[in-house]
Amino acid sequence: MKDEYDFSKAVKNPYIKNLDEKVTISLTQEVTDYFEQLSQETGISPQSLIGLYLQDCARSKRKLSLEWVES
Q1: Which of 63, 25, 65 lies closest to 46, judged by CA?
Q2: CA-based nearest residue to 52, from 38, 37, 64
Q3: Helix locations, the chain, DSSP H
Q4: Which of 50, 61, 57 is nearest to 23 (CA)?
Q5: Is 61 within 8 Å of 68 (Cβ atoms)?
Q6: What are 12-65's pLDDT values in tens digits?
Q7: Could you tell me if 59 and 51 are in contact, meaning their C-beta atoms sit under 8 angstroms apart?
Q8: Rounded Cα–Cα distance for residues 31 and 33 (Å)
């Protein structure tokens, strides 16, 4: 092992932008049950399925349709 290394010609990692970002979200039991069932059918983890679904929404620029009901 060298005492010193020369990093003057080092290049930034071009793949760093592709790393996943960890987030914490709260989901209803209905949602977790749905993705757990889908996971059993596909063999893909629920976390991966949720990530793939959200990625699909983002790429297709899908918008959520909401109607608020006043009580």
Answers
A1: 25
A2: 38
A3: 29-42, 46-59
A4: 50
A5: no
A6: 888 887 788 889 999 999 999 999 999 999 999 999 999 999 999 999 999 988
A7: no
A8: 5
